[in-house]
Request: fold
Amino acid sequence: MISKICSELNIQTYQVENTLELLDSGATIPFIARYRKERTGQLDEVQIKSIRDLSNLYLTLQKRKQSILESLNELGVLSTELENKINQTDNLSELEDLYLPFKPKRKTRASIAIEQGLEPLAKMLMAQNSTNIEEAVTRYINASKGVNDVETALKGAMDIVAEWMNENASIRKRLRRLFEREAQITSKVIGTKKEEAQKFEMYFDWAENIKSIPSHRLLAIFRGQNEGFLRIHVQPDPERALQILDEYFIKHGSTTKEYLLKTTRDCYSRLLKPSLETELTKNAKEKADTEAIRIFSTNLKQLLMGSSMRNKRVLAIDPGFRTGCKLVCLNENGDFLHNETIYPHAPQNQSKQAINKIEQLVSMYKIDVIAIGNGTAGRETENLVRRIRFNQSVKSIMVSESGASVYSASAVAREEFPEYDVTVRGAISIGRRLIDPLSELVKIEPQAIGVGQYQHDVDQSLLSKSLDEEVVSCVNAVGVDLNTSSKQLLTYVSGVGPVLAENIMAYRREKGNFKNRKELLKVKRFGEKAFEQSAGFVRVHNGENPLDASAVHPESYSLVEKMAKDLKLPVAELIGNKEALDKLKLENYQNEQFGLATLNDIKKELLKPGLDPRSDFKIWEFDSSVNHINDLKTGMILPGIITNITAFGAFVDVGVHQDGLVHKSQMAKTYVSDPSQYAQLGQKLKVKVLSVDTERKRIQFSMLLD
Reply:
C-alpha cells in the first residue's frame, strides 16, 4: 500500500509512513502540515489529505479481498490460481467480477434451469462440437421437472450459458473498457412531461460521451431524471459490444452457433448491459460529485478567507420595502450596540425621517462604514445612503445576504440574541460579515451559503465532510482569539471540537479571560493531546507571554527563549525585531525534533506575529445609473463582484438583483478549463454586457481582457 501511494503522489516512503503514523496517533491535518514539517518532508494539507484518502481506499479494498477469500474458503472453491488473481487485483470492480460466479445469489432463470437438470445440455452448447444438438435435447425433456418440450429445454440451457457469460471475468473486463471508452449517455424527455420540463429543454434529445461530459451537465441530466422528466440510458454501440461477445465465446466452425448468437444477445441485454450501465453510471456520478464538491470547497475557502474590514465600527442595514429596513450598530469587534427600524421606501416613503435617523446613529456610535444587504430593496437603500452628506468619512458597501436568513432563524442566533427577532439577527449577521467574514460564516451550514453548483444533487455525506475540512483549514490558517471567539469558531480549532469548545466558553464565563495558552489545561476534559493539537492555533492577546499571541507553538518556546538569550534580549523585544532576528544562524538551533523548516517558520512568525493571511477590504461601488435588469444595455461596461464560480463560468453581481454569467469562454483569450483559475469569489472586476434576456432574467457578460 505504501509503495502504491508513493507512486501515485510522487513522494517518498518516509513521508507516507510518517504521515500515516501521525494521523493514526490522532494528529489533525492542520497540525501535521504546520508543526510536523520535518516528519513529513514539508507536505501541505492537500497532500496529507491525499495520503489519508488513498490509504482508506486501499484499506477498504484489502478488507473486501479478505472477506471474499474467507467466503470462498468456506464454500470450498478457493484454488491457488483464484487466490492469486484476487490478491493481485487493485480494482474493486474486477475483484467483484472474480467473486461473481461464487457469490450467493437469489433464484435466477439459470439456477432454475440447473435444478431442472439442464446443466449438461448447457455444457454441450458451450462445447460447440455436437453434431446433432436437436436430437440431444430430447434426452432432457422431463415433465416432472417442468421441462415439457424441446423449446423449454433449449431455453433453459441457454439461460445457464447466458449466466456463465455474464460471470466471465475476462469478458466483463473487456466490455467494461468498451463502456468506459465509448459509452454515450442519452437523455430523452418523457412525452407526457414535456410542458413541465422546460428547464431541462436542452436535454430533451441529448447524447454525449460519458467519459468527457462535464460534471455540471451530467448532474443536470441526473436531476432531470430524478425529477421524473428525463429518461436516461448509458451504453456504447450495441453492435460493437455484441461483436466482442461473439468473438470471445463463439468458436470458428461452431455447431451450436445459432443458439449461442441468441444467447449472447440475451446475455448482453438482460445481464451484462444493465450491470455495466449501472456501474459506469455510478462511477460517473461519483466523479461528477467529486468535481462539484471540489468547486464548492474552493468557493467556500475563498469566501471564508475573504477580505475583512478590521477595526471599523459598522452600521448594518437589512433592507426591506413594506416591513422597513432594520438597522443595527456594531463596535469594532462586532458586538451589538443598538437597533432601529426605518421606512424609507414604499408604501411608507419616510425617506427624510430615515436619513435623519441614519445620520444620528452614525454620529452617536462613531460609525466608520455602512453595510447594506444585497437582497430586496438593497440598491434602493444604497442610493438613499449615498444621498446623505455625513460630517465624517463614511463608506457604504453592499454585502451578500446569502445564508443570513438561515443564521437568523438558527439555534445559534437564538442563543446569541434571545431577546431579538430574526430581522435584527439578520442585520447583525450582515454587519459582522463585513468585519470578519470567517467568524460569522462558520455559524452557518456551508451548504446554506450558496457558493456551488448542484449542491443538493451530490453525495451529501461527502459534501459535508469536504466542506467541514475546508472550514477547519481556514479557521486554523487564520488563528482564533481564545478570549473573544464564539463557540462555533472554537469548534473548528484543531483538536477542539464541540464539547471542548463549550467547555472553553464555560471556563471563560466562570474565570474570565485566559491569561496564557497553558491555562487551557485547566479547562474540563482538555488533556495534553488536545493542547498539543490546538495550542498553536489559538491566540491570547495582551497575556502573560507575548508568544501566546503568535503562531509559535508552545513546544518551541524554549527555542525562542534560547534565541533571545543568545541575543541578550527579552523575548518581547525579539518579536518584530528584524535586525536582531537576521543575526541568528538558525542551523545552530536545530535538534532531533525541529529542523530548518520549523525554525524558518518560527523566524517568520516572530517578524510578524499573528499575521492575518487575509487581505484588507477594498472599498468599491456599483454603477449608480444601473439598478434594475431593464437598465442594462448590450455593450455597457460595469463594475461587479463575483458571487459564485461553477465548472462552466462565474456569476457576477452588478447590482440589478440578478447575477449574470461570465461563461468560461469569455474569461480569457485562450481556452479555459477551470474557471477558478481565472476568477476568485468576492473579486471586484469590470464586465461587459453581451446580452440581456429580461423575460427569462438571463444576463451574459464577458470579462474585460487586456
Residues 491-607 form a domain with the DNA polymerase; domain 1 fold (CATH 1.10.150.310). The longest helix spans residues 257-304. The chain has five domains: 2-102, 109-293, 314-435, 491-607, 629-703.
